[in-house]
């Protein structure tokens, strides 16, 4: 068992768990957004570099002070030529999910994006200014990733996703069928085949109907 996983398992501090889980989810989301922005294959070493830079930046934030030891181990693994930091984070995240009785909304977003890509071939990217949208790619706003979830990973505001596709109108039903979120069609441009969809936490479905 790895040092980081052992540390995770033996610490009962709820705040510590929340921060570690949040960091893993944000790191993996950042990696997959970076990967989806290029058509080239991204080798393990390049994936490690992306994760190391992201985690290193996070290590300077005061809120992650309690994760100092784990962050160092992650960075060391990512810099090891034979290391696979993505695999380690995925394994750790899966272990955390098995041990946790309550899956937070940020994890559900991560699961939703993975499902849409693996089952429907809809990749996802962060929306950039003045960038021409790519057909069949789901775009999210960076601000929404950062501010629509609190430090516990619970959703506190609707998350916007933008989608251009001949199947744009069906994405709401696809998302709702997963049971992870309540999807609402905020705006649909039929001529341009562009949809603006809001993701609401599952618990707030009654509020949407109102």
TrEMBL record:
Pfam families: DUF2913. It comes from the Bacteria. InterPro entries: DUF2913. This is DUF2913 domain-containing protein. It comes from Photobacterium iliopiscarium.
């Amino acid at each position: 068992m790895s040092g980081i996983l052992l540390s995770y398992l033996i610490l009962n501090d709820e705040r510590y768990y929340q921060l570690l889980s949040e960091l893993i989810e944000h790191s993996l989301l950042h990696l997959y957004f970076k990967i989806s922005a290029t058509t080239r294959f991204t080798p393990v070493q390049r994936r490690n570099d992306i994760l190391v830079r992201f985690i290193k930046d996070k290590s300077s934030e005061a809120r992650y002070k309690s994760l100092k030891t784990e962050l160092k181990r992650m960075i060391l693994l990512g810099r090891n030529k034979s290391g696979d930091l993505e695999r380690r984070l995925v394994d750790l995240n899966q272990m955390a999910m098995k041990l946790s009785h309550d899956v937070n909304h940020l994890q559900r977003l991560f699961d939703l994006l993975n499902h849409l890509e693996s089952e429907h071939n809809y990749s996802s990217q962060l929306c950039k200014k003045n960038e021409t949208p790519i057909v069949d790619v789901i775009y999210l706003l960076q601000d929404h990733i950062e501010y629509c979830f609190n430090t516990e990973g619970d959703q506190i505001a609707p998350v916007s996703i933008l989608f251009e596709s001949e199947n744009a109108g069906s994405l709401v039903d696809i998302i709702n069928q997963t049971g992870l979120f309540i999807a609402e069609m905020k705006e649909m441009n039929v001529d341009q085949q562009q949809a603006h969809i809001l993701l609401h936490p599952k618990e707030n479905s009654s509020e949407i109907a109102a």
